[in-house]
Amino acid sequence: MSPAPSGAGSPEPVEGETPTRQSPGLEADLDDGAAASLSVGDPVLRKTRLLSRQCDTCIFRPGNLMHLSDGRLRELVSKARDDESFIICHDTLPYHRHPDVKPAICRGFADQYSTQGLRLLERLFGFVEVAPPPTTSDHS
Length: 140
Hints:
Order of helices and strands: HEEHHHE
Number of helices: 4
Strand content: 5-15%
Number of strands: 3
Shape: globular
Helix content: 10-25%
Strand order of the largest sheet: 1-2-3
């Protein structure tokens, strides 16, 4: 697989993990150590983690459930598409509500957009579908 374009803020892949690119908008918020933990690759299965369905607060669900500022969703999608990349589900980010959950590609993005990055990951590694993290009500 060819390396990510320069300037994309891509972490070096962890040995045995599927190479990945950072989710758009995270570059300024993460240091190199945190960025390396954003791999969507499953080193055991050697496949790419993709949510099996949209999470309950998916940014692609109607109603702006994540309270994104005006134009932010458009900006995230444009960046991911311009970079031929993808968006990592916010619920699977290590600094969000579920730090023990491994990063996975946002199902809402993958269902609506086809990028070179997604097509390459599918062809080279394939996807393993993982369930979104449980909501608070799922813990009871």
